[in-house]
Amino acid sequence: MGYEILGLPMAYYIAMVLKVLVVFVFVLLTVAYSTYAERKIIGHMQVRLGPMRTGWHGLLQPIADGVKLFFKEEIIPSKADKFAFLIAPLIALVPAFIGFAVIPFGETIEVGGYKIPLQIAAYYDTASGQVVDLNVGVLYILALASIGVYGIVLAGWSSNSKYSLLGGLRSSAQMISYELAAGLAIISVFMLSESLSLQKIVADQANGAWYAFKQPLAFILFFICSIAEINRTPFDLPEAETELVSGFCTEYSSMKYAMFFMAEYANMVTVCAVTTTLFLGGWHGPGFLPGWFWFVAKVYFLIFTCMWIRATYPRYRYDQLMRLGWKVFLPLTLINIVVTGIIVSL
Amino acid sequence: MLGAYLPILVLVAIAVIFGLCSLVFSSLIGQKKPSVVKLAPYECGCEPVGSARERFSVKFYIIAMLFILFDIEAVFLYPWSVLFKRLGMFGVMEMGVFIVILFVGYIYVWKKGALEWE
Amino acid sequence: METFFFMIVAAVAVLASILVITCKNPINSALSLILTFFCLATLYVTLDAPFMAAIQVLVYAGAIMVLIVFVIMLLNVRTESGRRSSHSVLFGSLIGLFTLFQLFYLFNRSSLTGQKGTIDSALINKVGHTELIGKALYTDFLLPFEVTSILLLVAIIGAVVLTKKKI
């Protein structure tokens, strides 16, 4: 253990690479299988069976889909802006997959005398005896969410198709509106936790009640705004196929289309993980099972809720959507902040 | 400091490599039989009419501009929310003034109908 | 190691900002500008200012650039064709050289380096950058903070006046 690179022990680097790989594979598998789960769950809710042919009860469906998309023809429209058209899926995908870096997904484990916090962007500082993570963890996630907009706006613009342009514009206006409301909704959480570090937010909930109980309004607002921000039903206006064909990804095919698809589901996983961490006590749960189990269970429950909502509600109309974001959610979040401020300081 | 940020760099690298690999391999593996019609923008199977590079509603700009302004408000709220218990009633008052002034702007925007989509 | 990392990020930042002014396609210029903001954010992180880094991405790359991209799309700016007029090249380089000269002059005089601040990395790591910024903003700089809200109010009214035909 004596060997050090840049002031950090070798064990740190091994643990880091392992954590990164485990989380990346976890997100990738969850993304792949939530597409399957979504088809299956909605199928059963609508008294259908969903995919049944590939593998036992269609279990190999995501793999078959992936392979199929790999072999599809790649079409780049002749009028498209090539560079922007190629880079747009990448800009959508990368922020969606790296959001997980700041989310704590389990308690600190000890391997061979070296303490490893189960959070990618964190390490155990032996000098202070504390887990050090990003001081601005929540802002990191918000910043990434604000970058995801470019993938969609560029895809819409560069395709040089009317449907794409309208879909891209609509969806970017929707995303920024709800990003704002989501960003304001979680401020009342920081007012209770007195920190933007996700480790501290989770620890604070373990000592008291979950923030979902202390801040029920913020919880509901944040979850709805997040669903709207990642363009899921009932707010999937950019993909309103009855009016916009397929929105911003009308002209996309093969793996580039799949990348938007993966980005959408990865965003859903990230949003559910953030909601778990901020409002549902993170990885804390009854002690008989390890922390990561509770974390995964809560995240999967929220993912299930997203699918349930999709099966239940019809799509919003665009003017209703914008009215909801700007005229209902925005003032509600501000009122929630002021009320929390007055109650706490009295 | 390094210990907390280095993993993010590694994760970014992995995500970028994953994305690039998907792009490159799918374009290598997939068949390519381009034709003029196939590469034309999709318009329900008809000949595309006019250009897609047209001006669009000014609504989107006002949303983008208002987003910047209220986002800055949110940015001011983050450090305040972390500190507000330590600032006490004084902190609530000063942020109250800030929010009320911006709320006046919000009401102005509402009354002028800038948030209407018809 | 830290210097080496700084060199790489700074080189990318400079390259990206050169691309901003040389790209023929305005959207590519905007993308380069976003990359420049990212490099700046990375530099803020290496300077122990994570809050600044997050705000840099959140406000500049995530909000202001969205508006700029929208405007590029609205104005339907075509790819710039042909050469720029020789006048603008001449004046541009003259102004650039003058600014460079000014910078060198200032650095040589080093009249800018005043006292060192009291906040160092150790304090930031202990208290937290967000907390330190908040403490300064909401106690020492209270008036500028409240004035900011009036500035934002003016900007909100300006945005409405600019975009509405009938007020």
TrEMBL record, chain C:
GO function term, MF aspect, one: quinone binding
Protein's membrane topology: Multi-pass membrane protein
Function: NDH-1 shuttles electrons from NADH, via FMN and iron-sulfur (Fe-S) centers, to quinones in the respiratory chain. Couples the redox reaction to proton translocation (for every two electrons transferred, four hydrogen ions are translocated across the cytoplasmic membrane), and thus conserves the redox energy in a proton gradient.
Alphabetical list of InterPro entries matching this protein: NADH_UbQ/plastoQ_OxRdtase_su6, Nuo/plastoQ_OxRdtase_6_NuoJ
Catalysed transformations (reactions): a quinone + NADH + 5 H(+)(in) = a quinol + NAD(+) + 4 H(+)(out)
Regions that span the bilayer: 6-23, 30-47, 53-77, 89-107, 141-162
Protein name per the record: NADH-quinone oxidoreductase subunit J
GO terms for cellular component: plasma membrane
Localization, UniProt: Cell membrane
Keyword line: Cell membrane, Membrane, NAD, Quinone, Transmembrane, Transmembrane helix
Listed EC numbers: 7.1.1.-
Family note: Belongs to the complex I subunit 6 family.
Major location (coarse): membrane
